[in-house]
Every structure is written in C-alpha cells, then in structure tokens.
Amino acid sequence: MEIALMLCEKKLEIASLKVQLAGMDKEEFWAKKAILSMREGLISTSVDYYKQGLRNIPMSEMLTFNLAVSFEKMRKFQNCLNWFHICLLINPHSVDALYGLALTCLKLEMFEKALEYIELAIEDHPLNPQREEGIDLNEDMSPLSPNKKRQAVQK
Q1: What's the pLDDT at 16?
Q2: What is this structure's pTM?
Q3: What is the dihedral of CA 19, 22, 88, 129, to 10 degrees?
Q4: Distance of CA 38 to CAs 5, 26, 96, 124, 151, Å?
Q5: CATH dotted code for 26-154
Q6: Cα separation of 9 and 121, whole Å?
Q7: How far apart are CA 60 and CA 44, in angstroms?
C-alpha cells in the first residue's frame, strides 16, 4: 500500500514536470514567473527569467521589452537602452520601445536623443493618420523620410 502511494506521488511529480516543460516555449510562462518575482521585489530574479525566456524564444518582443523595463527599474540605463534597441529590431514599429528609449534618454540627460525618439514614436503611433504602413527599413529612401530618421537614431 505504501509503495503504491509513493508510486502515485512520483507519477504526479512527473506529470507536473511535463506540464512545466511544455510551457517553457511560451512567452507567457516566462513573463508570469518574472512578474511574480518582480512583485516580490526580486528584480534580478525577474531579469533572469526574462533572459531564460529569450533563450527559448529569442524573437519575443514582449520578453525583450519587459527585460528593458526591468533594467530601468534597476537603474541600469545602458542595458535598458540596449534592450529597447533590440526590441526595435524585432518590431521596428514598437511605439512602446520608442517611448522607453525616450524616457531612458531623459534619465541620462540625453535630451536631443529623447526628442528624436518621441518624434519617431508619434510618427509610428497607430492612431497617426499619416503613419506609413509596410515600411522596409532596408529600402533607400529620401533623407527626410521617417525611415532615414529611424536609421540615424538607432545608430
């Protein structure tokens, strides 16, 4: 009887581990773990969860953005800038990443750069009727186009 009970417990543990492993390829799995750590005040643990999630899902805009925000909370502004830039590589129209870059630049007293990011965010905002759809960032365009500004700002 006791052996049967122990066997059932082990089967439950294995089933639980299988469920956990199945979720590791979903960004929500990593985001949930990171957010729970953040709520407990464990920011560095939260950063570790976002990084682990990005190892499994390298093109996750959500995990990348949240990682940048976590670095901002840790006041590691250079890391924050780097991850917001990576977020823009994943999604060149990420208004959130552009505003994140602008706010980080303001904290670093890089006022001109912050203004450039704000202007790009306004141009790319979905409610902007003049927003360009389907922009090819590699296309050679006029010097006044938003894409040329974006390329200059990202450098």
Answers
A1: 54
A2: 0.69
A3: -80
A4: 37, 19, 20, 30, 33
A5: 1.25.40.10
A6: 54
A7: 19
